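User: Please run a holo structure prediction.
Assistant: Happy to. Please share the sequence and the ligand.
User: Here you go; the ligand is coproporphyrinogen III.
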Amino acid sequence: MTHKPLLATVLGEKQERPPIWIMRQAGRYLPEYRAIRSEVKNFLELCYTPDLATEVTLQPLRRFDLDAAILFSDILVVPDALGQSVRFEAGEGPVLDPVSVDSIAGLGKEMDPLTHLAPVLETVRRLRAALAREKTLIGFCGSPWTVATYMIGGRGSPDQAAARLFALRHPEAFAALIDVLVETSINYLVAQFEAGADVVQLFESWALNLDDDAFTSRVIEPNRRIVEGVRARVPNAPVIGFPRGAAGNLARYAEKTGVNAMGIDYATPLTFAANLPKHLPLQGNLDPLRLVAGGQQLDDRVDAIITAFADRPHIFNLGHGIVPETPIEHVARLVERVKKG
Ligand code: CP3
């Protein structure tokens, strides 16, 4: 088998230099992405057109010596596949018709979600065929709580108040929503592995703003069920967990969910992260705005991150997605520095 440095790192093997990928590495900071984006009416059409989704997935790898491609799609294709209306409006982000206590039982009943997601799985197959052998192919889905915050609130919000209240006021309906998301996510991730993904990442972007009980029931438990459910069908499936904002809950998340590797956000202190169990591969955690600003502060922080994690398996990444304002030269400089020192 060809050596894939990034996959090997997820599996616990430290490399001489950290492999690197960048969250949201295909996106609006690239002119070639914007050109393709302007050919389609809406963002979901891009996700559901294998030709175009394959092309935009590969674009960043043509420019930079990245160690992985991440499937181009979105976490909100899952609610779309469950029959909820999802739209992406310019300047506003995603807008969904919120679910209600009564509508939850009907989710996924009209059509098999995997039939709806077939074009995304076709993209995975094409990527598998197109990628150089040493590159890792990353699949993903949103974690149930994070996806539920959009399904309940109808849009992104700074504090997820709508979903937090819904979970407290309607515990049974909320549990049913989490159940359907866990089941659909397991089927979807298994299908991504079968189509050729090497590893999957669970994006729990809204793991913040939760007390420890809520963190256990809404974040840890559903993510644990997904890892277990996927591995029951894909033995030893490699999984990266990214509970953004988990802070003091990071170690507990890693231990209880059984993920192979942990993504850490940029607000996690390096000294704190360095104290997580040494066998645990870590991914992260550069502030995306450092990449916008560039210059000496970028080089210094990149070096500090690499030094902090030098004694464990480490995958270099940002601590959240790259932003559209990022200069391409800064990305090139980052990748070169991580690879060559
Ligand atoms: O990383 C990659 O290159 C793969 C593609 C990817 C996208 N979204 C493409 C995208 C991935 C892995 C995601 C994950 C995602 N989507 C998350 C989790 C990660 C995170 O950032 O916290 C979340 C919360 C979403 C939901 C979402 N999708 C939002 C809130 C938005 C609007 C905000 C924005 O950046 O515009 C999107 C749209 C989106 N997803 C875009 C891209 C490239 C931009 C839309 C466009 O091009 O018009």
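Residues 91 and 313 are 38 Å apart (CA to CA).
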